[in-house]
Amino acid sequence: MDTERHPPLRHTVAILSRGDAAARRDATAQNSRFVRVFEALAAVGIEARPVIYDEIFASAVRDQLLAVDGVLVWVDPIHQGKTREALDPLLRDVAAQGPWVSAHPDVILKMGVKEVLYRTRHLGWGADTHRYDTAASFRAEFPARLQANGPRVLKQNRGNGGQGVWKVEALPNADAMVRVLHAQRGSLPEDVPLDALLARCEPYFGWGGCIIDQAFQPRLPDGMIRCYMSGAKVAGFGHQLIKALIPPPPEGPDAPEAQPGPRIMHGPDASQFQALRRSMEDEWTPQLMDTLGIDEPSLPVIWDADFLYGPRDAAGTDTYVLCEINASSCFAIPDDAPAAIARTVKYRLHRTQAVRSGA
């Protein structure tokens, strides 16, 4: 082929995020919070277009997505009371008609929900974890488990920002009373009847289908390590002293002492996280894919696994306990991540093109 007269086709992708009509009208790559992702994609020859989604103009969004080669999705499971109930079927339909979608809703339902903590509890990142599939099993099993095993953390299956995540501990000398603390910022501990807590959590079965029950990790004050992944490779790390599920100081939940520390970002080669990197790349991610039935090309172009420090082993080395995987809307990201995303997107698009051409 004469490449001067017929230059190679330029791949196009949509970067999809939620917003209102004004955000949709004014969206550009330059004013987007994903501007560095746009720049990294352009650097590898991929044209990226901002697409703003809301249910009221979903049909127009669908038309835009069908006009590109791939779709990168950054939409939270819950945002200002809105869910992905209408978006996920739209994305499935788009993907069925040709454009490659990441993360695909079916992949999110496997790995980007709290149930993954239960399904992968046998991996090296696992902890004492249980799943309740019905309100009846929750009422029957949780009270005894709480009494026998100490503080627990209940998690609705789909959510973000600490919504539907509760630390629960039995109160001594107070029959059928528990102390609960919601993970959302600004929450205060409450002493409530256990029955009231069970009733409060029952709506989670309607939205997410189950409730996950995990042992509380005493080293929570040491912070959370966010391991950012692009496909099956580590793209960076973030370490943050979090305050969720830690009772606020006497000054109250709005005091400076009650606020989380900054998330300190690190590149994939940060020396203090190399043991975790080896575990993620060489063991846990392959085991995750095998357990959930996900192949490497289906892994999100950007996702993260959030770890708490587990008990130190006999040699005094840190262990890690998975507390969440974010696959729907993983952002903010380390400085190295946009380039990693661009490399993964380029590889995936070329692979998709080769499959379709029969190469």
TrEMBL record:
InterPro entries: DUF6815. Residues 249-268 are annotated as: Disordered. It holds the Pfam family DUF6815. Residues 222-331 form the DUF6815 domain. NCBIfam families: Cj0069_fam. This is DUF6815 domain-containing protein.
